[in-house]
Amino acid sequence: MSVMRLGHINVRVLDIEEAVDHYVNVNGMIQTHVDPLGNVYLKCWDEWDKYSVVLSPSDQAGMNHIAYKVKSDADLDMYKTRITEAGIDVEEVPAGTLEFVGRALKFKVPSEHEMYLYAEKEYVGTSVGTTNPDPWPDDLKGVGAHWVDHALLMCPFDPETGVNTVAEVTSFMVDVLDFYLVEQVMVGPDGDIQLATWLSCSNTPHDIAFVGGPVSGLHHLAYFLDSWNDVLKAADIMSKKRVKIDVTPQRHGITRGYTIYYFDPSGNRNETFAGLGYLAQPDRPVTTWTEDQLGAGIFYHTRELVESFTTVYT
Amino acid sequence: MHTIFVKSEEEEYQCREDQHLLVAMKAVGKSCIPSGCHGGGCGVCKVRILAGDVERKVMSRKHVSEEEQQQGISLACRVFPRSTVTLEIYESTTHQ
User: Fold this and answer.
1) Domains in chain B, number
2) What CATH number is given to the structural domain containing B16?
3) What are phi and psi of A30, to 5 degrees?
4) Which domains are assigned to chain A?
5) Which residue of A213, A214, A263 is in closest CB contact with B37?
6) For the segment A55-71, what is each residue's pLDDT rounded down to a tens digit?
7) Which of A51, A75, A81, A90 has its CA 20 to 30 A from that of A259?
């Protein structure tokens, strides 16, 4: 496997000042750059590359693209060949097309989301450094998230007309980009329709997830926190700052994560996520959730799916 | 404090000028308008304002076009009342 991790996500926002205030003072990110077009680049304190979130002023919310970092430059040539052989158009963009990033591959996955692969991004270091570091830095803001952990993307899904881009994009990520399937939700009379998948390219339960919905979109981007206590405190901070919380602290059955779902000021869903659940491995047996237990899979305590989970997204 | 009449649901509640329509509705446990992201992004709270003065913050063009906005159509989470407001639910779901 040579895709290492989620590198960054580019999110559209309706009001850039409100958005920066949220991502800095609620999520605890650090602004590292503003480009001439007004896009704002941010990183978390525990991340070492230049940025992991790009906020783009727009007249609508949602995601412009998601980018994954591969291990070496040569991997880009390998993936360019494999993506092309899979029948997907791939464009190689020169270094600097994405700010502070080396050459990159740009393509659309079968769920219509734009994705980049790159091997190099400017190194700036974490806030605690690499020599005798303290466990956390002073002056953390908001929830003080460690890093951007994963994203969940909504994928066109309509089994009555035979559309299932969840299954298509999952196959693409596994067969072409070397991710492996960790958990899935299977629905339909025979339980053979893949409604949702969680995939890893590392040792964590998910580096990306896909859920079926009416149209392609962004369900959420998630930030890693250390512990359940941090999740509780994060919810306190959100209430103090009048952040719209979608789902208060709770456990996911799927991935075993501790979660809060909340929204940025443009309505893009964020998550604070703690608890690395288990050691994900390519040979770990895939966990399957059935349609009748979907509620418990998503929200383990209430065992009820809230309507907003599949209808409210950008 | 202004009264918000949700005509299509035959419900009403009170809303302050510094609250958007959904914050005040949820604070008193009502659900007469669909509630989503509260950021003008997801589009589930689309309403048509039939009467009353309001201020509106920017909302996603994906869900409310300029033409619709001129006809009084809004996302409720972007609307702040300046008088008694009468409205109806425009559509109950997004992504259509």
Assistant:
1) 1
2) 3.10.20.30
3) -115, 125
4) 3-118 (3.10.180.10), 147-311 (3.10.180.10)
5) A263
6) 999 999 999 999 999 99
7) A51
